């Protein structure tokens, strides 16, 4: 999440240098997983944002807090592009990250958007989109 937050803050979506954002992070045996996930999210961030836009009520990705957006992009990236990550696990991890790094209501916001994403629901005002 921190890497995606930094990439977004620097607007460095086009082939970012993974090592630039991971100097002070210890991954253990998860470095390959993290690199694959970050690479996938960077390559598809515009598509992911469009999917998030379709699921949110009154918010678009461009207006979301960068912390919320990093959490949501991470979860959608895990659900769409990573093998063997159940949707429920990705959502639960996102809710915990939102709870840890953002305001209390951010966890409910993440849960609602990601739940709608998994169910393929469109908000009423976007049902005809």
Q: How is this structure best described in words?
A:
There is one protein chain. The longest helix is centred in the middle third of the chain and has 25 residues, at 31-55. Mean pLDDT is 87; it is low at 124-129. The chain has six helices and no strands. The chain has helices spanning 2-10, 18-21, 31-55, 66-81, 87-101, 104-119. By secondary structure, the protein is mainly alpha-helical.
Write the layout of secondary structure elements.
Layout: H1 2-10, H2 18-21, H3 31-55, H4 66-81, H5 87-101, H6 104-119
Spans of 5+ residues with little confidence (pLDDT < 50)? Answer: 124-129
Identify the overall geometry: globular
Main sheet attributes: strand count, strand direction, barrel closure: none
Q: What structural class results from the helix and strand content?
A: mainly alpha
Compute the number of helices: 6
User: Could you tell me the radius of gyration in angstroms?
Assistant: 14 Å
| Secondary-structure element order, N to C | HHHHHH
Mean pLDDT over the residues:
87
Give descriptors for this structure.
disordered C terminus; 6 helices; 129 residues; globular; mainly alpha
Task: Describe, in short, the structure shown.
Helix content is 66%, strand content 0%. By secondary structure, the chain is mainly alpha-helical.
